[in-house]
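Lay summary. Proteins are chains of building blocks that fold into shapes, and those shapes determine what they do. In this project we predict the shape from the chain. Here is one chain we studied, written as its sequence of building blocks.
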Amino acid sequence: MAGSGSHWPPTPLLDNTCAVDTNANSELLPAQDPFSAEAMDPLPCFGAWLMEARTFEPNDPDAMALATATPAGVPSVRMVLLKGIGSDGSFVFYTNAQSRKGLEIDANPQAALCFHWKSLRRQVRIEGPLSEVSPQQADAYFRSRARGSQLGAVASDQSRPLPGRAILETRAAELAKRYPSEIPRPPHWTGFAVYARTIEFWRSRPDRLHDRMLYTRTPQAWHRTLLYP
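And here is the predicted shape, written in a compact code that computers can read:
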């Protein structure tokens, strides 16, 4: 803040020559390249980009920013992990439904997602309504998690005030003794699917002349729109 006496380091010069990582697969099938004239469905394109990210992105290629909002339009955003993609274009993640995002989803079931694969200099943005996955699907995924992750999910009153970390650790230890084998999924821990109404692909190009292709779902098919960067 001006006049506060704080001294911030200078902002580094921006790289104006950035391009897609040359290690990335440049031999995608035309139907898998979102900027190809033959790519009329964004889902195979996303799948191909995700597979490349899992190869070349060193940290959490399945991580995505999840934005939700209150009914009054007050937004919040956090990172979650993609845990599945439905054939209908639903992007699935899991969380505590009593957390801040869970309460916002319940009151205003619309969301936006953003994948940022820095090593590939690519982004994908997804927007659409949310719905809860079936209890059977939530059970199956909960059982697939590591035991420590299961204990953490049950022990945490996510987003609520925590008087001290020792309380959380004690609760987790008590749960481990109570459930020496299978840990039941709490009913408030579940999954949500974002049904993609729009999917936008962004690819870095030199001189900030980036590529952007927006796919919008219609009753018949997907509509493509090339956007200015």
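What the prediction tells us: Helices lie at 42-56, 100-107, 135-144, 147-155, 165-178.
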